[in-house]
Structure prediction request, 273 residues.
Amino acid sequence: MLTMEQYREGAQALEERLGGLRPEVLIILGSGLGKLGEYVSDPIYIPYGEVPYMRTSTALGHAGRFIGGMLGGKRVLLMQGRLHIYEGWQAYEVVYPVRLAKLIGIGSMIVTNAAGGINLDFNVGDLMLINDFIKLNAVNPLIGQNIDEFGLRFPDMSKVFDREYMRLFRDVVTDAGDVVREGVYFYCTGPQYETPAEIRAMRILGADAVGMSTVPECIAARHCEMRILGITLVTNMASGILDQRLSGEDVNAAGEVASERLAPYVIEFLRRM
Ligand code: HPA
Prediction:
């Protein structure tokens, strides 16, 4: 656990390194989706190690730095590389950058991730607007003494993903003549991929895609009332659907290909925001 004083210390360090930028939007990039960072103008690179109490991402395809700058006409703070529970970090460590973002005045968050498709109508390469999530494990960034400065002890989660942002992103994709799916993201800690039986169970429970990220950050962001857009890229069909073995390398490669397609949509979304 960190104290409010420690959160403030981290936020101050981040703010100092950002100069006078004052970002409005936090963007967290998923596996292989780091490409967006290349489009940031007047970039300020801040390795995670330069921010007190910040952990460093060790996962495949995650660079481990903040990029501050301009994207789609908005001042953004981009995370090239996110932190995952499977790396051994505590949930409060995984969401630490979200809370720093809040403290430096950021009110909106865009999260992207790579995930396995559970919905049998989905295909590899599909984009999915996340409209809700399911988390049945005990991982939770809000366990422990509540920090009232961030939010309520029992925060509401009835609309985690901002309806206005969802409509806006859908319009962006549709205007480009492309298609975006919509669905429920099921959160597993990983690092192992799921069994076919687990995937069948998740489908019965109403999930459309499964992944190992995003949900801790969304819980922390809603706790402090940030507005969220969540985008999933279906990098593979989930376990047992096709006759295939799942590998992190393949997931990353698929993420990198799709990154090219997703980047302009995120930029146009920022422009219309
Ligand atoms: N399962 C869990 N996480 C994932 C997957 C998957 O099939 N693909 C990409 N991230």
Summary: The chain has one domain: 4-272. The mean pLDDT is 94. Strands lie at 25-28, 41-47, 65-71, 74-80, 108-117, 127-135, 181-187, 209-211, 227-237.
